[in-house]
Amino acid sequence: MEHKLPTLSYELGELEPYISKNTLEFHYGKHHQAYITNLNNLIKGTAFEDASMEDIVKHSEGGIFNNGAQVYNHTFYFEAFKPNGSAEPNGKLKEAIEDTFGSFDNFKAEFSKAGATLFGSGWVWLVVDTGGKLSIMKTKNAGNPLRDGFKPILTMDVWEHAYYLDTQNARPKYIENFWNIINWELVVKRFEE
């Protein structure tokens, strides 16, 4: 099976001023595409040639894992954006966030702090365990919560290529911008599936 760059549900310039068209041209158009190209080349003739992305993330190692997880992580990240995103989730996810973190604002502060304090490159995730409990998880490099039995529902990329063209080394400004373009309807759907 050949993996392809997924089509975005928005135009590259529609996330401005929070994420620029220039950043998306590089981050989505070049970085994400490079992981897909590398993965397609690496899986030829292996047990992962016809595997799903989730199976690649859960069971592969080395270069196949690194590229496969980055394909999964980036797809998951870009899918959760929309122009003029909603301010916060509703329904059962909102209740679960309030039960776990005390309030949506507390969750937002904890998630943001996790992103600001992750040393080096990686990802911050809102995940659900097998009992339905929410938590925030940080992973290094291409790390993904699926490998630890968690279901991810939201992620923030804190590799420098996600924000350097827009905010240079100001990761906190990127994190602040992140909250303005979340498609909470999609995140709620992921939680309820």
UniProtKB/TrEMBL annotation:
GO CC terms: cytoplasm
Swiss-Prot/TrEMBL catalytic activity: 2 superoxide + 2 H(+) = H2O2 + O2
Pfam families: Sod_Fe_C (PF02777), Sod_Fe_N (PF00081)
Domain Manganese/iron superoxide dismutase C-terminal: 89-189
Assigned EC number: 1.15.1.1
Binding residues for Mn(2+): 27, 74, 157, 161
PANTHER family: SUPEROXIDE DISMUTASE, SUPEROXIDE DISMUTASE [FE] 2, CHLOROPLASTIC
Function: Destroys radicals which are normally produced within the cells and which are toxic to biological systems.
Family: Belongs to the iron/manganese superoxide dismutase family.
Entry protein name: Superoxide dismutase
